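Fold it.
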Amino acid sequence: MDPNTAIDWIPAGQRHGFGDLVYWQDKGSVPFPARAAQIDTIVLGPHAGARFPAELRPFVAVGLTRRKQYDFSDVITASLGRAWAAADPHVVFVECPHARVALDPNRAPPRDPSADLREFFDRLQRQRAGESVSFSGIDAIRPITFSGETVLMPPSTEAQWAALTDALAGVRALGHDPYRSACDEVIDTVLQTRVPGEPLVVVGLHDTMNTKMRADGALVVERPPADRLPTLVNFGNRGDALGNPLTQPPTLPGADMRRIADAWAHAFGIGPSARAEAITLNRPYPGGYEVSHYAALLGRRGQPRTGAFQVEFLREALLGPRATAHLQQPGGDWPPVDSAHLGSIVGALVEAGRLLRA
């Protein structure tokens, strides 16, 4: 099999720790507690990991390609988050190592993952028979891609269910749980070292394409208009189209959300006439579980001038035109990162941070 199209596996038994998942400037020479006092932006990558733990190999559909695997994740946010943290001493990035097929960190932790997965497969069968169904609330483990491609094969016997349940529980302890622990440790360390009253935000870093995948691997099937992202980024603070909160307490005050969006627009060179097309607030994505979870956590700790918001980049904006054009053709591979293009994105992010601190 072509190694460029084969599934990307994590070796069985590989456990991830803080040092594997957390990135900051001069990581090789500066311990994190020494850097933490400068941090004002904690960036989380719950979908940055695209690789599958090898323990799931017996359950993954035959014929799944690397392109389908990577499109199932927000794989380029790993490169972006690491580079952003390396370029800005005020930023730390925490990366989940596993794809969402193991357990999605941006979903509320399920009380019974196996029961939810059974329900997902049941609804999937009904959907494929023509019924209209929703997977909301039961997709913390997601066995299909967003284009409907099978990732995990549905077990046909109780013995197979038991084996899959055990495998999923085992890999959660190797990847998802260390990621969540690393997020909590980063936040604890930053709160302990920061100057009281200085701003601090938790940022959920995501990306999505405006097209889904055709069966031959070409990413050309347009999403419905209501689901399409702007040309650069959607910010989510669980609010309305102006950033004004719809929940109390807000994940981030509306005025702060608008100020951040203004700084990004300036840093990315987006003028007033292009603003509405390039940047939106809470449309189509208002923010997921991590935004609400960490905003509430900071609120419970009584931390002033803190909050959380979600960043949903248009993936095409991160990929660049060459990689995007490649993915619009049939195939099973994934193009290499366009480092120069991604570097320009990172430069704008650093500039936006500078403007916000000024």
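The CA atoms of residues 15 and 81 lie 21 Å apart.
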